[in-house]
Specification:
homodimer, about 525 residues, 7-stranded parallel beta sheet, globular
């Protein structure tokens, strides 16, 4: 049975437009560039976890983790490196040491914060088709964030540049299964630090019409980001305040520290009713105890402390509970990802987030240095932990390599295929008389085959997920074709997606306003040099 | 922190003995060769699924699949190609068509069979340390079975030989996480077909002390297998009858057919109280309906029909419920594995097996032609479906490539690492005051680190799983080391394991008896030529 629409055969489109061309009117289309590519994909859609999440610890054990975290916050406390934050927490009732940066939070403060944080909210993209539900059983997948290096088979591994940044952002837009831009996919180190955020956020606002993220590297960058999102969405400040449209990831400086720029960012985001995802980076054996229970207790203490900050800044501000506990290689101290330890802490992180009624953030991660079997298995193991843990926001969904030190163009595609498979896995099985096919089984009869049966012919086109990367040819055909491995397929597909890329439409007036804002802020010098 | 016992540094043992040397006395050792290798492994242990299995359909939907299967068996029936089987089923109350091979089974017969089949039993290996619990939350992992080809990086891909067969069997013994030999890992096609089973089973009985499998290719081969297991275990026929020690996989000829040799084998195995695993090979869109519900209804009907056969032959005979439903590539008809469709049917297969109170068999599978990222992700996706589906017997646990057409030496190692990670993932997290490490967190304090803390020093050696294959070095060190991918690591490790291999001890009298039996049966000509 031959289907002429072979998704593995990628036809090239000679007129493909690789320029962003801000302000030029383009035909409106749902989903932006992703829907117009010659690479066959699932449509843009948020998956939902209809299965029961997996519980790795009992309810009693979960409660004891919670209690251990409360003791950490009450007895040990945390260092908050921003005086303004300490004042705010003191006003909220925290025990603030006047002679140091130490703040102790009692359980009443934590309970108060948990009572005001919303369990579910909507995130607004400039293309309303790309709005996201955050919480409940909804999932959203992010592109990689924050890699210092980029790599592909052609150019090898190199420090990130603005060109790599823009190409990765284009892929993020082109891949339907990427719902969110999760930070800078690679750091564009050829851009000046003080104005880098202006160029980067401008790219994110124009090359994509999906949600994006701003780094909490001080107040100025967050305020710039908020203004750029407001302009890109074409809304006023009041509406932006009603409609969360930007998110930031806060990594505590584990153990038990929050620095000034992060605190400035999270407080400003919360005050503007934007989304703060608090994710302690608790590597068991390094920044956290070597025991998983200890690492989880610390993760949880820090996540709850972050929650207290956002809710003290603005009760009801949208937040998410981030888990990123993994282990290190005890021989070298190197962080390890997608490990059995990672999987179990991802499950418990989800249990804690559900106990608190907060959306849950986890990640798709690997330590592999090349897109080999290890990259495949560590990523799927981490997805197993995250998805069955009930993840709502999956960071680093596509492209993450080397424990986060490299954004791989090929891994972008491989991961997009993995995420599409996960999304398909989460689709309900159709259970109906027609689906049971008893009459078709009767017609085919013992020893027959279903290839040509009417029941098959009516359904075969959409019956199964058609992968982008997987090569299902038999060995002989595959060998004749040059024995391509998954990385080779992914390389071809990313090239094709970039060739097919067209920027999503943007109102010329908005594009102009955005460009003017960037120009003015650059003239002003961008962010202060010290942050 | 340096641990001198680097598991990635494999020291060679120059006196390694690569010959099986039947009858030569060797020092007794728990677990056989696997425990004496220089490759660091988890000890031999059956993992248990302490998590709640994932349900992909509701109880009502599950019941409707069951009902559809009963209708298929009642209204359409199945072809049984062995007159003796039809007579037996007729005597048991089945509706047997006198003019064809068709047999219709009513729901009463199915219910009767379900009432006598045991839900849990022990399988006895010749080394009692390698006995297996089958059922409940216990898991057992098999080595690959039945590949026509073998491959490794050095020798490339080739039709299976006796040498490859023996080397793969040695690896199966050497890998602690392989609990069962699941058939011939590769077909030794250089051995004559009529006596092949004698050489192959003799190797399985001597090169390993773990359980093995006999093919149901007619009565003679099964009777030979039973006698060889009896001799190897050093027990009499009555004890063998009391203690299941051999298993066979029955693949129905889907749709709705069971051939003569398979029926002979399964009836003989059941009569001897040995384990029959009925696994319909229901590829949706080919031998089964294109809809997952239809493929599952057919799988379930055939599995239940197999159960009726074993219980009619010997009520109470141990059986397992096998699921192997996957989909085909609708463009080429090629079977696909480790797909989202495979994952969901693996979950539902487990739900059906639990509804019936039968041990559940699933598999670790991939269509990949080389040990690349696809091999990694398809295998872990299939493990995700199998493990969260509550698998008890995981077939093809190590080594499976190309949809079963090739046994890869490197994949043997890669999969063993994956299975060890799964086993580690299933270990409970220690929840205790000591594990919460609140005092250690207090001592380390905000901004400190846990590397050198007493809490870490006491625990770091066994804190985390140390993988065999995964390369966690940073990019620079990895590149300096020649940029090895996972396949390259696996190649090195399989060579080391073979070099370290020593055959498990066997009483010389038993070895002699076994050799004499094989010699006599060869003299007699082995199995009849027609099967």
């Amino acid at each position: 049975m031959q289907d002429p629409r072979d998704p593995q055969t990628l036809t090239s489109t000679p007129s493909a437009d690789d320029a962003p061309r801000r302000g030029r009117r383009r035909p409106a289309g749902r989903g932006g560039g992703g829907d117009r590519t010659t690479v066959q994909q699932r449509p843009w859609k948020q998956p939902r976890l209809r299965y029961e999440p997996t519980r790795a610890v009992s309810d009693d054990e979960l409660e004891s983790i919670h209690q251990a975290s409360l003791r950490i916050l009450e007895e040990i406390g945390m260092d908050f490196l921003l005086p303004e934050a300490r004042q705010m927490l003191k006003a909220a009732g925290a025990d603030v040491d006047p002679d140091s940066e130490r703040v102790r939070l009692d359980r009443g403060l934590v309970e108060q914060a948990l009572s005001t944080a919303p369990s579910r909210f909507t995130l607004h993209a400039r293309n309303p088709d790309h709005n996201l539900e955050m919480g409940g059983d909804y999932m959203a997948f992010c592109c990689i964030g924050s890699a210092p290096n980029a790599s592909d088979m052609e150019g090898g591994r190199r420090p990130g540049t603005h060109k790599d940044f823009r190409d990765l952002v284009r892929l993020s837009q082109a891949l339907n299964v990427v719902h969110v831009n999760g930070g800078y996919p690679v750091e564009p180190i050829d851009l000046p630090p003080r104005t880098r955020h202006l160029d980067a956020l401008s790219d994110l606002a124009t090359l994509t019409d999906k949600l994006f993220h701003a780094y909490s590297l001080g107040r100025t960058r967050i305020l710039d980001g908020l203004e750029m999102v407001r302009i890109a969405r074409g809304v006023d400040a009041e509406r932006l305040m009603r409609e969360p449209s930007l998110f930031t990831i806060i990594n505590t400086n584990s153990p038990l520290k929050l620095d000034g720029p992060m605190l400035e960012g999270m407080m400003e985001m919360a005050r503007h009713n934007q989304v703060v995802v608090v994710t302690p980076f608790t590597l068991a054996g390094a920044m956290a105890p070597v025991t998983l229970a200890g690492a989880l207790a610390l993760q949880n203490a820090e996540a709850l402390a972050g929650l207290v900050v956002t809710q003290a800044a603005n009760p009801g501000a949208p937040t998410a509970y981030g888990g990123f506990t993994s282990n290190v290689d005890m021989k070298s101290g190197a962080p390890a990802f997608g490990t059995p330890e990672y999987m179990r802490t991802a499950l418990v992180g989800g249990q804690l987030a559900r106990r608190y009624g907060l959306p849950y953030r986890s990640s798709n991660v690997t330590s592999a240095n090349t897109v080999d079997a290890q990259a495949g298995y560590e990523s799927v193991f981490s997805l197993w932990g995250a998805v069955m843990g009930g993840v709502n926001l999956l960071k680093h969904g596509t492209g993450w390599m080397e424990g986060g030190l490299c954004a791989s163009f090929e891994k972008m595609i491989l991961d997009a295929d993995l995420l599409q498979m996960v999304a398909e896995f989460l689709e309900p099985i159709e259970i109906s008389e027609a689906a049971f096919a008893v009459d078709a089984i009767r017609e085919v009869g013992p020893g027959g085959h279903f290839f040509g049966s009417p029941h098959t012919m009516e359904r075969y086109r959409d019956a199964f997920y058609a992968p982008m990367v997987s090569d299902w040819r038999n060995y002989e055909s595959w060998r004749e074709a040059g024995a391509p491995d998954a990385m080779t397929h992914a390389h071809r597909i990313y090239k094709q997606l970039l060739a097919d890329y067209t920027p999503p439409p943007m109102d010329p007036a908005i594009a102009e306003e955005l460009a003017a804002f960037v120009a003015r802020r650059k003239e002003e010098g961008g962010a202060p040099a010290d942050t």
